[in-house]
Amino acid sequence: MSIREDLKAFVDGELTPERAAQVRAAIDADPELRREVTFMKILSKSIQEAAQEPTPSGMEDALRAVSSTQARPWLFARTPLQYVAAAAVVCLLAVVFFPIFAQSKYSAKNSAEVAASKMPATAPPPMVERLDGSVAAGPAGAPAVEGRAMDAEVAKSYRAGEIARDGTVMPEFGPRSIVRTADLSVRVKSAAEAQANATTMAQGLGGFVERSELSALNDSEPVASITLRVPESRFDQAMKSLRALGEVESESVSGQDVTGQIVDVEARLRTLRGEEEQYRQILRSARKIGEVLEVRDRLGQVRQEIEVLSAQRASLKNLAALSTINARFTQRVSLDKADDSTGWADETWAGAVRGLQGVGKFLGQAAITIFVFSPVWLPIALVIWLIARRSKAS
Amino acid sequence: MLRAVFSRTRSEERPDIESLVREHYDEVWRFCYRRVGEARAADATQETFVTAQKRIASYQGRSEARTWLFGIALNCCRNLSRKHRLEDTVDWLSPNRPEPRIEGHQDAVIDRLALKRALQSLTPEHREVVLLHEVEGLRYEEIARVQGVPVGTVKSRLHHAFERLRNALADCGEDRR
């Protein structure tokens, strides 16, 4: 500011010592400035002297007004900014913990539902008929014997193959009859070579090839499929050998226990054979032509049933004796090696592009998150801005 | 003073606004009188102290009690003037006081009526800063806090206010040297 503009401040003593000295020197050198300073002093004095000093009134009313305001509890004796900060913290906690709370509530509900679905329906235990003809309450879920519930001990014996369905106690049957079936998918260097190796392996284990197929729809991926039958005792060894031919892509093994079925068939065969013997005895003692014809007719039916059941038994035993392995060999596609001389540049470029994509993805995620949470932070920010504006105005 | 009051009040559950009222009521009343007139000065003063009671918790002690209260009073007076559409007149000049004399300048007299007219010709901002400095006796920094403007603005306004007063009085032939 110029000397003239600082005159008033000089008169009021509001200048720094250095500036005051400059102004004083200028005043001493300029009579015009001296006159202005004098006038300022006169004018200032005039205003001060002219101002009225009336007697104030209304203090008691003011004291009553401030006394009537009740002391607010500590909870309310806070600044607006503290209220906003508290609201922001509450919102933040709600946003952070609500999903966790909802998830735990859902998990608890889901667990309860799953547990409820697993619980068996409470039903009265069925009445069971024991082998000795007595009737008693059996355990729930026990297998039935010809339509009636079986008690625990009888069910155990039935499953062990020691008794037939009719409760007949069977002689010692021997080991279980399991029909094992496996499906295996292997990626190999050469499908045809893998197929040949599998064939040789199966024959070496005492088995045979039930079906073999080689397809090459295009030169890039030939596929060979083969169905092997190997002795049940050599099943695990065969699977191990097949896995070693390449990289296993998928594998599944299933087993069906047909022991009970075989036992049933054997029991029915024995019954039919007994029936056949009875018919033979009747035939030997028959005298009339009509009786002979009728007995021979019945005998024929029984023999036919025996033949069917014998074939069924043989089939089950054959399936149990030889396990089935369905193997699929997919030839690996050979890729040319990348040129080492350009590999580092391409890798660097690819890495840089991925990095840039990552940054862009992050920025996009941040923008979306901020936008989605705008109902939370926007009102708080607005309140803070309004309060700050009011405070500044006041 | 205000810090002592506040430090005392912070240790208690209830703020001691009554001490503030007793110590500063008169000067706040006169402050309001010069802006809203005698009829509404008590209302404006009461409103000032009620507002001060609400804001005691937010007071940080950066200014003196009087300055802080004057800042609240200025807003209360503006609100009251706006509400009642009061005219901004210079009625706080006493018409019956003897003319002031300056030592060494016994011939220097300023007519009270001319002075009133000159003050009336100022803009509200210039008149306000003249009131705060010349009548209320606030320093430049205190005026800046009350009005919420920089110190440089206060200095500039005072300079221009006195310049305009001088020109106005010169027009009336009162600029006697």
Characteristics:
heterodimer; A: 394 residues; alpha+beta; five-stranded mixed β-sheet; 12 helices; 9 strands; 15% strand; B: 177 residues; mainly alpha; 8 helices; 66% helix
Descriptive overview:
The complex is a heterodimer of chains A (394) and B (177). Chain A is of the alpha+beta class and 394 residues long. Chain A has 12 helices and 9 strands. In chain A, the strands form 3 sheets. In chain A, strands 6-7-9-5-8 form a 5-stranded mixed β-sheet. In chain A, strands 1-2 form a two-stranded antiparallel ribbon. In chain A, strand 1 and strand 2 form a beta hairpin. In chain A, helix 2 (17-29) packs across helix 3 and helix 5 runs antiparallel to helix 12. Chain B has 8 helices and no strands. The longest helix of chain B has 21 residues, at 151-171. The radius of gyration of chain B is 18 Å and the shape is globular. Classes of the chains: A alpha+beta (394), B mainly alpha (177). Chains A and B meet through helix 1, helix 3, helix 4 and helix 12 of A and helix 2, helix 3, helix 4, helix 5 and helix 6 of B.
Q: How would you sum up the global shape of chain A? A: elongated
Shape of chain B: globular
Poorly predicted parts of chain B: 6-15
Number of helices of chain A: 12
Number of helices of chain B: 8
Query: In which order are the strands of the major sheet of chain A placed?
Result: 6-7-9-5-8
Radius of gyration of chain A: 51 Å
Order of SSEs of chain B: HHHHHHHH
**Tally of strands of chain A:** 9
Can you lay out the helices and strands and say which pair or pack?
The complex is a heterodimer of chains A (394) and B (177).
Chain A: H1 7-12, H2 17-29, H3 31-50, H4 59-68, H5 80-118, E1 127-129, E2 135-137, E3 144-145, E4 148-149, H6 152-159, E5 178-188, H7 191-204, E6 208-215, E7 223-231, H8 235-243, E8 247-257, H9 259-285, H10 289-321, E9 322-331, H11 340-372, H12 374-393
Helix pairs in contact in A: 2-3, 5-12, 9-10
Chain B: H1 2-10, H2 17-36, H3 38-55, H4 65-84, H5 112-120, H6 124-135, H7 140-147, H8 151-171
Helix pairs in contact in B: 2-3, 2-4, 3-4, 4-7, 5-8, 6-8, 7-8
